[in-house]
Structures are given as C-alpha cells and as structure tokens.
Specification:
By secondary structure, the chain is α+β, with helices and mostly antiparallel strands. The chain has a single domain, classed as Sandwich (Jelly Rolls), CATH 2.60.120. It contains four helices and eight strands, in the order E-E-H-E-E-H-H-H-E-E-E-E. The strands form two sheets. The chain has a five-stranded antiparallel beta sheet, with helices on one face.
C-alpha cells in the first residue's frame, strides 16, 4: 500500500468563490502511480470548504446565492465581536460544507459521476491563496 501526501495552491476571490480542482487531483493520482484507492481532499483553515457539484456557470451562481440566503453576510455573528474581522459569515458557511472529502478512484480515475466535479469553496471576506492537501492511499 502507498500513502502520498500532496498539495496544490489556488488563488481565490473569496466571497463564495467556486473553483474546480478535479483535474488537479487526477494529475496527482497519476503522478503518484497509484491505480486504485482513495483520495482525501482537505482544506486547512476555517473559511474554506470542499464538496462535489456539477461545475457549471449556473451552479457557480447558485452556491453564493444559496449561502447568502441562509447565512447572510450582513447578519450579526458573535465571531465578529471576538476578532472584529467581519468574516463571521465565512466561518459559518465553511462549517456548513466542511473541510474535507474522500473520493475513491479506480484505474487511476476518480469514481465521480458524469456531471460531478470536486470543488474548492472559498467563503472568506477577501481574496486568498488557498492550499489544499490531498492524501492518496492505494495500490
């Protein structure tokens, strides 16, 4: 069994930015020479998240609109009283989606549905350089 830990970095715009990272992960699987196993995708930090969606222009608009309905930027968040950084909404949105995802792969290809991609979500209140950790376990 092989265990490889890799990293990718992405520049984001913040404010519910949605970035497809599927190809990055498949390239890492290929580079690690592992055919079958699992890839765990993790974003360090408390204002970013990862999930799967159909990465298309409509959903890139729907996700920010959805999270703004349930966790509006201009609502009161106790976090803002602690740090005065105005990103309480960012933390809540990231907590809703979560920081990690595990996806199986077979024959070097992620076992995703036809219209399913892995995306990085950046909910912070400013642009960021996000690091994503991918741990590949397999044979």
């Amino acid at each position: 069994m092989t265990i490889k830990t890799e990293r990718i970095e992405k520049e984001t715009k913040g404010f519910s930015d949605v970035i497809d990272i599927t190809n990055d992960i498949e390239e890492l699987i290929d580079r690690c020479k592992v055919a079958n196993g699992i890839a765990t995708v993790f974003i360090p930090g408390s204002t970013g998240a990862v999930t799967t969606v159909e990465y298309e222009p409509g959903l890139k608009k729907d996700i920010p609109e959805f999270v703004n309905k349930i966790l509006p930027q201009d609502a009161y968040y106790h976090h803002n009283e602690t740090w005065h950084d105005g990103n309480g909404f960012s933390h809540m949105r990231a907590a809703l989606y979560g920081p990690s995802l595990t996806v199986p792969f077979e024959n070097g290809r992620l076992a995703l549905g036809t219209w399913q991609q892995i995306v990085l979500l950046d909910f912070d209140a400013r642009p960021r350089k996000r690091r994503v950790i991918i741990q590949i376990i397999g044979e």
